[in-house]
């Protein structure tokens, strides 16, 4: 990775930030904030309404009561999400028609940057659980954005509940063993693949031995073809003698 002009981690970080900021700039701050609120509202509606609607769905699927409960939550979530998204689009459309549209887009751009940073920190937290900093390759540690991601990861982990932090430590402790198991499985897969190739080669060799193909002797282009002059004279003499 030392031959790269720009570290791939830095490219990915920049792409996430710019994509999130561009989408938020196009949609506007009001639309983005209300979209987040719509997702949260749909989750709340599903959690609060599921106990009320679940009995009806369980009656429709008596053999699978858990499926009825899940279906009730899913229906409530989707209905609430569609309704809230429709309301969000209507409000954002009205805002774009006013003089606040430039301010709405500018704030949306900043909101998109913040959202992209949150997404990157969340991904960094997940990666840090699996791959601790001291186990990372040099090309990851050399990324210019890695110190900022590590700082954000430290802040995010410090805000987690003790139960989740305990899981993080447990996952990090089990990560080396999991990586060893993955490498063992990969080695086993390569060995099986090599064995398959060896079997195919042996089978093709056996088929060639069982059904050998005749090898045609190449003809010398300088050798004469047909009968020679002497052979023709002998044949003419034989024909004359039989008359």
Question: How does this model look, in words?
Answer:
The protein is mainly alpha-helical and 243 residues long. The chain contains eight helices and no strands. It has helices at residues 8-27, 29-60, 65-96, 101-130, 138-141, 146-158, 162-210, 229-241. Helix 4 (101-130) packs across helix 6 (146-158). The longest helix has 49 residues, at 162-210. The model has no long low-confidence stretch (mean pLDDT 81).
Keywords, please?
mainly alpha, membrane, 243 residues, 8 helices, CvpA-like, Colicin V production protein, 0% strand
Structure class: mainly alpha
E-strand count? 0
Rounded mean pLDDT score? 81
- Low-confidence stretches are none
Series of secondary-structure elements, N-terminal to C-terminal: HHHHHHHH
The rounded Rg comes to 37 Å
Gross geometry: elongated
Name the beta content range: under 5%
Estimate percent helicity.
over 70%
H/I helix tally: 8
Terminal-residue CA separation: 94 Å
Biggest beta-sheet profile: none
InterPro entries: Colicin-V_CvpA, CvpA-like
Subcellular location: Membrane
Keywords: Membrane, Transmembrane, Transmembrane helix
Transmembrane segments: 34-54, 66-87, 107-131
């Amino acid at each position: 990775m030392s031959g790269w002009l720009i570290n791939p981690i830095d490219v990915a970080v920049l792409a996430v930030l710019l994509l999130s900021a561009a989408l938020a700039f196009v949609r506007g701050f009001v639309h983005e904030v209300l979209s987040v609120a719509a997702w949260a509202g749909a989750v709340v509606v599903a959690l609060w309404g599921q106990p009320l609607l679940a009995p009806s769905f369980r009656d429709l699927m008596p053999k699978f009561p858990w499926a009825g409960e899940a279906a009730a939550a899913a229906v409530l979530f989707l209905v609430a999400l569609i309704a809230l998204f429709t309301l969000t689009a209507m409000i954002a459309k009205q805002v774009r028609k006013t003089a606040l549209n430039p301010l709405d887009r500018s704030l949306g751009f900043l909101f998109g940057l913040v959202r992209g940073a949150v997404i990157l920190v969340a991904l960094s937290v997940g990666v840090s659980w699996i791959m601790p900093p001291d186990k990372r390759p040099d090309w990851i540690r050399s990324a210019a954005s890695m110190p900022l991601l590590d700082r954000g990861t430290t802040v995010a982990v410090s805000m987690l509940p003790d139960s989740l932090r305990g899981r993080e430590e447990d996952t990090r402790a089990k990560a080396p063993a999991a990586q060893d198991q993955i490498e063992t499985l990969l080695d086993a897969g390569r060995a099986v693949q090599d064995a398959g190739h060896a079997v195919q080669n042996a089978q093709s060799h056996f088929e060639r031995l069982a059904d050998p193909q005749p090898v045609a002797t190449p003809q010398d282009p300088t050798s004469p073809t047909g009968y020679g002059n002497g052979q023709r004279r002998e044949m003419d003499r034989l024909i004359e003698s039989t008359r």
